[in-house]
Amino acid sequence: MLDFGSLLLATALSGACLSGTLLAIWLTARQARFVFTMAAGILLLVVHVIGFWQYGRNASPWLGQLTLTLLVAGFFVILCSTAQYLDKGWHRIAAAPVLAAVVLITAVTASGYDGLGFVLAYSTVTALLIVITVMFWAAGEYDRRILAAVTLLAGSAAVSFTLCALVLVLDGQWSLGTVPKNWAEDLNTAVVVACMTALGALTISLHHLRTQRELTVQTLTDPLTGLLNRRALTMFHGDTRFGSTTALAMFDLDHFKRTNDVFGHAAGDTVLQRFADVVRNHAQDGVECFRLGGEEFAVIMSGVAPDEAHGILRSIGGSFGAEIVVTRLGPLRSTVSVGICFGDDGAMTLDEMLTAADAALYAAKRAGRNRAVTADMTGGATTYEPARLFA
């Protein structure tokens, strides 16, 4: 059976292997900074465990101070890793209290009250674990399985550290001269081993989750404009049945080939980005924007009356026509043509809506561009809007 010292060294070895695994993952995905930070935090805890073991063999004040500082620093770095993953700034708020706690721990340990130093360190670690749990729950974007895992992991560790501190307080062990030795410390060692392993598995799972999410975003997003792409349109609305309160509008930038030929492709890209910004600014509840490819865009409007839909189109066309792109040949203004199709009680499919809107779009271009045309599904004809989009 392993003695306490052997168990500590086994814990340190396990943590070192886990830290090395996380570092290897980070080397293959440098953008995942939180994985590197987590590896650093676990490595600090490994050094703490070794220092804790050595302090039990040769208790010197400086070693006690270093051991407790490493314990607090390790969990603070883990908090920083959590903040990086969640893109929160809570670690900046926690930095000053943690630093104050370390100073206080160092002072009381140097004064010979290493037992009190352990109590303060355990209490600080408990607070950090609670903050980590609260950060995940406050994020509000993770399913309950992840939240349950984080709560169980951080909660178990927090309880074990709280018990360690409580035993020292109840026994009045303010000055030890060695490492604490009681049932709570034994329990804490076992919990830390289990939690450290679970922490590594959770970090790897969160890394895979983020990677999958980023790949999904890249697959469904147009890199130039940031709008959803045609693949996203098919994924989200391939099975949609478009009723009478839903409209699909297709936009085509007028004379865009000439824009590229005369002003250059960089200017053309800027025009596309400007139009995407205009469309995005007009997005609201029930309005979704897509770039289909080239200079073609689509907007789906749900729960809108025809007058409201036409108003949105006129506003988009007018705002885009007022945009000025500065080029080496002088200011550049562009306009857009629109074809819009409304669903019907027969619940039209996406392909039917796209076909009708596309036909209406080309009718708008044939009519002189810079205008909207509504597809008339009853007789196959098109209705021209009376006014140009941008005067």
UniProtKB/TrEMBL annotation:
SUPFAM superfamilies, per the entry: Nucleotide cyclase
Q: A Pfam family in this protein?
A: GGDEF
Name the reaction it catalyses.
2 GTP = 3',3'-c-di-GMP + 2 diphosphate
InterPro entries named in the record: Diguanylate_Cyclase, GGDEF_dom, Nucleotide_cyclase, Rev_trsase/Diguanyl_cyclase
State the name under which the record lists this protein: diguanylate cyclase
Check the record and name the NCBIfam families matching this protein. Answer: GGDEF
What CDD domains does the entry give?
A: GGDEF
UniProtKB keywords:
Membrane, Transmembrane, Transmembrane helix
Matching entries from PROSITE patterns are given as: GGDEF
| Membrane-crossing segments per the record | 6-27, 34-56, 62-81, 93-113, 119-139, 146-170, 190-209
E.C. numbers: 2.7.7.65
Give start and end of each GGDEF domain.
244-377
The organism named in the record is Aminobacter niigataensis
What sort of enzyme, by top EC class, is this?
transferase
